[in-house]
Amino acid sequence: MMGQSCAECAFWRRGAPGMTDAAAPDDSVSDIGVCELALPETLVIDGAPVFVQPVTHASRCCSQWFPLDGDDGGSDDPQPNPSPEPDREKVRRLFPNPPPRPVAA
């Protein structure tokens, strides 16, 4: 079982800066990165809008962790047991259909 940390989450970008005004590096060995799950938050600094994302350490995790390979483990779950066939004769005994009556004209 793999650990559920930011470093193994599909939404975490290693080495990316918190401010979105610079491109994130393609390769980085830093243990600091940003979570790109949510949209960047807008802050106003010196009258100008600045967009920031949460900066986290690789060892951290949250409740919205999603694995890098995109497999959340749901496909390995066993299929539920099929429903049994209904006992039609029992239903007919409990709720008999009366013979049709003539329609009044």
Verbal overview:
This protein has 105 residues and is mainly beta. The protein has one helix and five strands, in the order E-E-E-E-E-H. The protein has a three-stranded antiparallel β-sheet with strand order 1-2-5, with no helix packed on it. A two-stranded antiparallel ribbon has the order 3-4.
Short recap of the structure:
With 105 residues, the protein is mainly beta.
Describe how the helices and strands are arranged.
Blueprint: E1 12-14, E2 32-35, E3 41-45, E4 48-52, E5 55-57, H1 88-94
Antiparallel strand pairs: 1-2, 2-5, 3-4
List key phrases describing it:
105 residues; 3-stranded antiparallel beta sheet; two-stranded antiparallel ribbon; 5 strands; elongated
Radius of gyration: 29 Å
Structural class: mainly beta
Shape annotation: elongated
Runs with pLDDT <50, length 5+? none
How helix-rich are the residues, as a percent range? under 10%
| SSE order | EEEEEH
Distance from N terminus to C terminus (CA atoms, Å) equals: 75 Å
Secondary structure: number of strands: 5
